[in-house]
Amino acid sequence: MTDPLALDPVLSPEERSRLPYHDPDLSHEERYDAFVEHVHAGRKVEARDWMPDEYRNGVLRFVEMHANSELMGVLPEREWIMRAPTLKRKLALTAKVQDEVGHAQLLYRVAEDLGKPREQMLQDLLDGKTKFHNVFHYPTRSWGDVGIIAWLVDAAAIVAQQALRESSYGPYSRTMKKICWEESVHIMHGRDVIVTMMSGTHTQRGMVQEALDRWWGPLMQMHGPRSDRSKDRDLFWRIKAKTSEELRQEFLSIYVPRIRELGLEIPDPVLHYDEGAGRWEYSEPDWNELRTVVTGHGPMSQERLEFRRLHHAESAWVRATVLAAPVAAAA
Ligand SMILES: [Fe+2]
Ligand SMILES: [Fe+2]
C-alpha cells in the first residue's frame, strides 16, 4: 500500500515560497534559470509553483496523453468481461478495468491543475484532437489477447511508468507511485492467465502464440522511435527520465527471457542480445504504422472513440444532476 505521507508535497507552502524562482524581484530570465537549476538538481515542482510556460505545457501534454491512454485502454479489455472463462477471471478483469479508469481519474486531476479543464480534455479526446497510446487502437480477438495485454502491454507500460515516479513534476511522480503498485498487480494477473493457458491444451497454447504474433509489432512500437537525448525537451525538463530506446531495451531485457521460458516464440528472426554492444538487436519497428495508428487511423480507433462518445452522451444526465445538486441544495 502507498504510504499516505508520500503523497504530500515535500516542502510546506511557506518554504516553497522561498524557492529562488518565486522571488518577484528577479527578471523572467533569472527566474527561468533558477527554475532550470532547481529541476536539474533533481528537485520537485508543485502545482502552485511559478513555472515557465514550456514546462507547464510539456507536463500537461504528457500527462493528458497518459490519462487518455488509461481511459481508452479499458475498452479492449472490457469487451472480455462478459466472456471471461471463470468467475475468478471475471472478477480479476473487472477489477483491472476499474483500476485503469481510476488511473485516468487521478491523471486528469493532475493535468487539470495545470490549467486545462477536465471537460475540455475529454472533449478533445472525443473529437480526436488529442492522442492515446498505439496499443489501444487494436482489436482483441481471443482470451489470449486478455493475457497478452495484462502481461506484456502493462509490462511495457510499467517500464515507462516506473521511470515516471522520478518525474520533476511532484504531483505526477507521486501519482505514479500509487499507479505502479496497481500496475504490478495487473502484470501478475496477466502472467497467471498466460501461464494457465500455456499449461493447458494445444489449442490454448496456440491462442497465446497467435495473440503474441499480433501484439509483438505494436509492443515494439509502443515506446516510440529513437530520439536524440540532447534534443528531447521532456528529458531536459525531467518530466520523464529515460529515452524511448532505453525503455524498449529494458522491456526486452526483462521480458524476452520470460516469454521464451514459457515456450512462446517471438515473431522476430533478428531479435537477439548483442553481448559486445550490450543491447538487444531487433527488426526495425514499423514507424509508419505507429504514426498512422496514433493519429486515429488504427483498426479500431474510430470504433472505440465512437463508443466513448456514445457513453459520454448517455451519461450526460448524471453529470448534469451531480453538478446541479449544490445549486438545488442552496435554493
Ligand atoms: Fe493503468
Ligand atoms: Fe494496468
Spell out which ligands are present. Answer: fe (ii) ion
Structural class label: mainly alpha
Low-confidence stretches: none
Output the radius of gyration: 22 Å
Give the quaternary arrangement of the chains.
single chain
How would the blueprint of this fold be written?
Layout: H1 13-17, H2 28-40, H3 53-78, H4 87-112, H5 118-126, H6 143-164, H7 170-198, H8 202-221, H9 233-236, H10 244-261, E1 272-274, E2 279-281, H11 287-297, H12 301-314, H13 316-330
Antiparallel strand pairs: 1-2
Helix pairs in contact: 3-4, 4-7, 6-7, 6-8, 6-10
One fe (ii) ion (FE2) is lined by residues 100, 154, 183, 186.
Structure notes:
- With 331 residues, the chain is mostly helical.
- It has a single domain (52-330), classed as Up-down Bundle (Ferritin), CATH 1.20.1260.10.
- The chain has helices at 13-17, 28-40, 53-78, 87-112, 118-126, 143-164, 170-198, 202-221, 233-236, 244-261, 287-297, 301-314, 316-330; strands at 272-274, 279-281.
- The chain has a two-stranded antiparallel ribbon.
- α3 packs antiparallel against α4 (87-112), α4 (87-112) runs antiparallel to α7 and α6 packs antiparallel against α7 (170-198).
- The longest helix is centred in the middle third of the chain and has 29 residues, at 170-198.
- The radius of gyration is 22 Å and the shape is globular.
- The two termini are 42 Å apart.
- One fe (ii) ion binds next to α4 and α7.
- The site of one fe (ii) ion has 4 residues, from α7.
